[in-house]
Amino acid sequence: MPISIPLGAPVWADANTPDLAGDLVFYTKLFGWTTFDSGEEFGHYTEFCLGTSASNARVVAGIAPNQSDQRGKPSAWGLSFHVEDCVRTATAAEKLGATAVTHPMRVGDDLVWANMKDPDGAAFGLYEPLRADMGFTAFGEPGAAAWFEYAYDGVPAVAMQFYAELLDWEVTVPAWEDPRNRRPYVSLHAREAGLEFGGAAVIGEDDPDASPRWTVCFEVAAVDRLAARAPALGGEVVGPAHDLPGLRVATLSSPTGARFGILERTG
């Protein structure tokens, strides 16, 4: 059954991979997801779902094998934001300093999508659903995407000004942040519904990748248990489990190197 995703909020997350079969084994064993392959016509794009049959499946994310001309493309997770008009929003994004990697294209009778890079170089998508059942049909619960985190080597609020203007976000500094911090963490809300869906933070000093980026985070029942399981499945713990206000979090990567977060609600 569809869920309501407000305009401006993340509506979809998916990964690319050079090894579809291997990554399917990793994710299904890690999260307990089931999979539905769209077939050869759609390049074997595969949906990850909660539920065991087509009748009760709720979609949480997708994964696509690299195309024949991009076999060596690094594996990565990406996210797309809900927009009313993909063409109009992509044009507005370019005027605000973004770059169109893939201009708006229609995907069957399902959606219109564009692949963009923000003014600081982080990838994101614009997603205009053409049917009510497109996008997440499970969100914000164990096994589903629940949070989206932006990492930036600068003042997070400055980087978020682009998205706030383009997608009508409210960007706020949470009450727990140190008022002396000149580069404070910021929380991100879709203004239409007041939905808090993510945040933006300074890239850690020990992070070898200093490029701005979005991380898709999936909610789980026990962060430490999944973090311990990932290496046995061929993945890696790239950010050890640690506590944040109300959360326990870790960053993992798939066997093909796609980073993603896991979070457990603790309060």
From TrEMBL:
<dbReference type="Pfam" id="PF18029">
    <property type="entry name" value="Glyoxalase_6"/>
</dbReference>
<dbReference type="InterPro" id="IPR029068">
    <property type="entry name" value="Glyas_Bleomycin-R_OHBP_Dase"/>
</dbReference>
<feature type="domain" description="VOC">
    <location>
        <begin position="144"/>
        <end position="265"/>
    </location>
</feature>
<dbReference type="InterPro" id="IPR037523">
    <property type="entry name" value="VOC_core"/>
</dbReference>
<dbReference type="InterPro" id="IPR041581">
    <property type="entry name" value="Glyoxalase_6"/>
</dbReference>
<protein>
    <submittedName>
        <fullName>VOC family protein</fullName>
    </submittedName>
</protein>
<dbReference type="InterPro" id="IPR004360">
    <property type="entry name" value="Glyas_Fos-R_dOase_dom"/>
</dbReference>
<dbReference type="Pfam" id="PF00903">
    <property type="entry name" value="Glyoxalase"/>
</dbReference>
<feature type="domain" description="VOC">
    <location>
        <begin position="9"/>
        <end position="129"/>
    </location>
</feature>
<dbReference type="InterPro" id="IPR052164">
    <property type="entry name" value="Anthracycline_SecMetBiosynth"/>
</dbReference>
